């Protein structure tokens, strides 16, 4: 028997997202997010014109997996009076690589899911004004709810899928994935030029227009055509 070297403190659990149609789980390694990747959202945030994609990260343990037949619950986070929803298509990476070409990029995709990039907008805006990192606005606990992952082969038309978010039954955000400024393949190409991607990485691809605040008790219902819906209540 090999000697087991104990950890000095309890080792963190791996966050694991259900995979549709299997008993398997997708283990989360890193969470990359793309900023301002739909034109109408860029405009509502005060920007115009195509710029190279830019990225930020959330901690892996900010991910909150939610089963398709359940409503996940997240706590209203501290320090904010302006918690925003951002509905996003999430890409799950199945094969690693660096400097991946856009032509080859989709072979690295394991599957897709519906995600929410929850944002403390007041804190993010403060950090922007001061030229400071966005971490406190974007990377807080429970800031990345996600629904089950569907294998890429089961959603061949994901690039044209409709994407929508309703809050308490009222539609707030609606668009199509085809309006991404940088599509999934291009995003992977840019991202993998900066970081080596590995299996277990998630990419939140950006949100369309219509971001707005949620409050205690709100129920969010995210949808992307072909994927499992994501339901989350703000506690
Ligand atoms: Mn976002």
Strand count = 18
Query: End-to-end distance, in Å?
Result: 47 Å
Helix content: 10-25%
N-to-C order of helices and strands = EEEHEEEEEHEEHHEEEEHEEEE
Report strand order across the widest sheet: 4-3-15-8-9-12
In DSSP terms (H or I, runs of 4 or more residues), the helix count works out at 5
Overall body shape: globular
CATH topology: Fumarylacetoacetate hydrolase, domain 2
For the record, what CATH class applies?
Alpha Beta
Descriptive overview:
- The chain has 235 residues and is α+β, with helices and mostly antiparallel strands.
- The model has no long low-confidence stretch (mean pLDDT 96).
- The strands form five sheets. It has a six-stranded mixed β-sheet with strand order 4-3-15-8-9-12, with helices on one face. It has a five-stranded mixed β-sheet with strand order 6-18-17-13-14, with no helix packed on it. Strands 10-7-16 form a three-stranded antiparallel β-sheet.
- It is 15% helix and 31% strand.
- Bound molecules: manganese (II) ion.
- Manganese (II) ion binds next to loops.
């Amino acid at each position: 028997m090999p000697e087991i070297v104990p950890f000095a403190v309890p080792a963190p659990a791996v966050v694991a997202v259900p995979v549709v149609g299997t008993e398997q789980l997708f283990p989360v390694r890193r969470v990359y997010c793309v900023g301002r990747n739909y034109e109408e959202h860029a405009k509502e945030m005060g920007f115009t014109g195509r710029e190279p994609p830019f990225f930020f990260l959330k901690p892996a343990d900010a991910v909150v997996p939610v089963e398709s037949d359940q409503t996940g619950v997240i706590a209203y986070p501290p320090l904010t009076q302006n918690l925003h929803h951002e509905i996003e298509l999430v890409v799950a990476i199945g094969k690693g690589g660096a400097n991946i070409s856009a032509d080859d990029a989709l072979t690295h995709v394991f599957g897709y899911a519906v995600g929410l990039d929850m944002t403390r907008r007041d804190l993010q805006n403060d950090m922007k004004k001061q030229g400071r990192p966005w971490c406190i606005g974007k990377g807080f606990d429970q800031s990345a709810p996600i629904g089950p992952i569907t294998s890429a082969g089961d959603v061949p038309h994901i690039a044209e899928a409709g994407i929508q978010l309703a809050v308490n039954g009222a539609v707030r955000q609606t668009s199509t994935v085809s309006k991404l400024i940088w599509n999934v393949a291009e995003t992977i190409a840019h991202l993998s030029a900066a970081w080596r991607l590995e299996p277990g990485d998630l990419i939140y691809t950006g949100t369309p227009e219509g971001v707005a605040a949620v409050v205690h008790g709100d129920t969010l219902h995210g949808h992307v055509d072909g994927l499992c819906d994501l339901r989350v209540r703000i506690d």
